[in-house]
Known about the structure:
The protein is of the alpha+beta class. 16% of the residues lie in helices and 45% in strands. It contains 3 helices and 9 strands. Strand 5 (72-85) and strand 6 form a beta hairpin. The radius of gyration is 15 Å and the shape is globular.
Amino acid sequence: MGMVYADVELINGLDEGAARRHTIGEDEVKRFPVNILVDTGSYMLAINEDIQAYLQLPVVDSKKAQTADNRIINCDVVAPIVLLFKNRRFTGSAMVLPGDSEPLLGTIPLEEMDVLIHPLRQELIVNPEHPLYAQLKLK
């Protein structure tokens, strides 16, 4: 199977909350559309410094991460970030990769959104068993 990409929208979660409270307008919510690599070898959502700067997400932590070429790098963690894909939503944190590195959509947000990779079409799809809502396992 080749590489799978998905068109998603990334949103500053603080802005979204402020818009719900009517302290900023909906048009002031920082949003960033991106064609993201769906990476089942990665656990987390990973954005790059350019996306982080545009969305102005606050740094909440720092973690070490192992890259595909086995290097260990230190990454800032930003939150809250919202990721939208079709009728699915992930709210959480993202690791920040250096410079303009390729953003990655890892398994934790994939599981939370209840989406799957369709191997024949090589695309990200909403789970056909739950087309209207995400269903998570608790056991």
